[in-house]
Design a protein that fits this description.
Layout lengths: L2 H11 L5 H9 L1 E6 L4 E3 L7 E7 L2 E7 L2 E8 L4 E2 L2 H4 L7 E4 L3 E7 H10 L1 H24 L4 H11 L2 H5 L2 H7 L4 H10 L1
Helix pairs in contact: 4-5, 8-9
Length: 188
């Protein structure tokens, strides 16, 4: 992506930031095109950037009892970060690309400085935090449902998951084994 394409994308998606604020945000942003399987953030390691997905997808996961436990997926216009990374700590999750992807990379410290000194960037930060809080509430609600209801609710709300996420990762995200997901899908 060229600098103009990054600017156009940010103007389109991030309507909270314009003018001088957008120029300041662009100054700390870089465009990346990376292949499927690229690990952006490694569990247990520090990372100084976060990302916005322009094209592509990613998953976040942790290792539990020698198995991958997927905690979320991200697609176009989503932010890729962990709360620990944004707070300057080692990440508790790994973020890996599921498809060849184009991303905007932003330095966390530079963004935090901008947010402290620029009201529009601070509002953008608050917007992203509100979106994350909404997601966490949906996750809590999802965890109270039966396996079949979890599958039906998540695929109705996010049908792209069936096209872009492996059944193994989807099963992990829904808190079930792949065999259980196959049975649930057969009955749906």
């Amino acid at each position: 992506m060229t600098a103009l394409e990054v600017k156009t994308f940010l103007e389109t998606v991030q309507d909270h930031v314009a003018g001088k604020s957008l120029e300041e945000l662009l100054a700390i942003a870089d465009s990346l095109t990376l292949p499927k399987g690229t690990v952006l953030v490694q569990e247990g390691k520090f990372h100084d950037c976060f990302y916005i997905v322009v094209r592509g997808s990613a998953k976040a996961f942790q290792w539990k009892d020698d198995e991958v436990s997927c905690s979320w997926f991200a697609f176009e216009n989503d932010v890729l970060a962990t709360m620990e990374v944004l707070d300057g700590q080692a990440s508790d999750e790994t973020i890996e690309l599921m498809e060849d992807s184009t991303l905007i990379q932003i330095k966390s410290n530079a963004f935090a400085y901008l947010a402290e000194n620029n009201l529009a960037v601070a509002r953008l930060s608050f917007h992203w935090l509100a979106e994350h809080t909404k997601f966490l509430g949906e996750q809590l609600d999802l965890n109270t449902l039966s396996s079949r209801d979890r599958y039906e609710n998540i695929t109705a709300a996010h049908p792209e998951l069936l096209q872009r996420v492996s059944l193994t990762d989807l099963a992990s995200f829904l808190g079930m084994r792949r065999e259980t997901l196959s049975r649930v899908r057969g009955k749906a």
